[in-house]
Design goal:
Blueprint: H1 3-10, H2 13-42, H3 47-70, H4 79-108, H5 118-144, H6 150-165
Helix pairs in contact: 2-3, 2-5, 3-4, 4-5
């Protein structure tokens, strides 16, 4: 990886997507850290609940930014194909960051700070999510939102949603060409 090679990659579609993903991640980290600062330092919450609430709140704008800005997807979010996989990564990041927070609290607490060093807690949150950052990018780019999945994927979702709104289910290979009504 030479500087010229990195510059050439940054000018490609994949490179621009990676840059937008990095920016989205920085926005997510900033929102999480602002929330952690409020919860830990101003509201004096315990580290683990503060981490949980900050991660939960940040997941919503992170999902929207990733879907719309990084991968250019529009339309209603599909629960099974988009929201649940994204939340699985969010939960995995929350678990890893919470374990890191627990360790930091254990090693930095003393009589004056029974909840540990609050700045170290914030660093533990970043470290926990940092571990999954590259894996999440690969998953989002290659499986969930990537360019290879754009047209057929979005068309399938739009067809499913349109049929569901009209009270029909998608036809199966054994059924006739017309969708069957949904039992209510």
């Amino acid at each position: 990886m030479t500087p010229l090679g990195l510059l050439a990659h940054a000018k490609s579609d994949a490179g621009r997507r990676a840059i937008r993903y990095t920016c989205t991640s920085l926005i997510g980290v900033t929102i999480t850290q602002v929330l952690l600062t409020i919860f830990l330092h101003l509201l004096d919450w315990k580290p683990v609940p503060a981490n949980f609430v900050a991660v939960s709140i940040t997941a919503v704008p992170a999902f929207i930014l990733n879907k719309r800005w990084v991968w250019g997807k529009r339309g209603k979010a599909h629960m099974r194909r988009e929201v649940l996989p994204f939340w699985c990564f969010t939960i995995a990041g929350w678990i890893m960051s919470t374990l890191a927070v627990i360790l930091v609290v254990k090693f930095t607490r003393d009589a004056a700070n029974p909840d540990g060093n609050k700045l170290a807690v914030q660093g533990a949150n970043i470290a926990g999510f940092g571990v999954l950052w590259i894996l999440k990018y690969i998953f989002l780019d290659k499986i969930m939102f990537g360019t290879d999945h754009h047209t057929p994927y979005d068309e399938d979702i739009e067809l499913e949603e349109a049929l569901a709104e009209d009270g029909f289910t998608a036809p199966t290979s054994d059924s006739a060409d017309k969708p069957a009504p949904v039992d209510r």
